[in-house]
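Per reviewer request, we include the raw input and output of the structure prediction for the construct analysed in the revised manuscript.
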Amino acid sequence: MTREKLVHDYFNGWNAHDPAAIIATFVQGGTYADPTTGGPLAGDAIVKNAAQLWEAFPDVKFEIRSHTASADGPIAAEWIMTGTNTGSFAGLPPTGRKVVLNGADFIAVTDQGIRSVQGYFDSGEVPRQLGLQIVVQPKEVGPFEFGTSVRIAGSSGEKPGAFSVTSIIPRDEKEAQRIGEYSRRIAADLNKMKGFQGWIGFTVGDRMVTVTAWRDPEDSRQLIQQPMHAEASQMFFGSDLSAGGWTGIFCRASY
């Protein structure tokens, strides 16, 4: 099989959303890397990476704009990726937005298969097109730790009568995304609850915290009946979610 045919089959596998077809173009131990992978991937890790893209953009396609090949060097392929975000991206709910991303792959290939693919593109372009903020800051400087936050404002201007606070320490990045997904789904129901006055969720260093303001301490009990909150609580107090943390209610008399 010619080198050009292998590269053609490689991109066809991506466009057909066929992991077996992609892997079939690589030699044993062949690798794939791009600005988001954190290093070269091989075997099942390539399949997992592709599956995450297909999940976030079920209609994703790559159009080859140009390619060049030398006798014994890599094949360079310039491409445009298009897709609509109708699935979860980085643990976030779908935006429904369409993205267009320009990039290029440098593909080291023999007649037996692809040895390596090194992709180049602006890793911030897709988040920007999805309307996501890109925060560049240190994790910590001296005694200070940095993070990100999100807020839901309630409609009441009354002074809160209580705050429910939960602090969780995830064990790794995958668990942090899982906890974040639980928090977003729980927070989405808060505006429907009696006495809700506001919510803030933030991550600082390795700690994830949520603070919810209520008109009355009894109003916070509604969270116990919320199915997603009940599921997360069961996992939190067991061993399936986080390395540790705490939760509690702080009433007006306490502050």
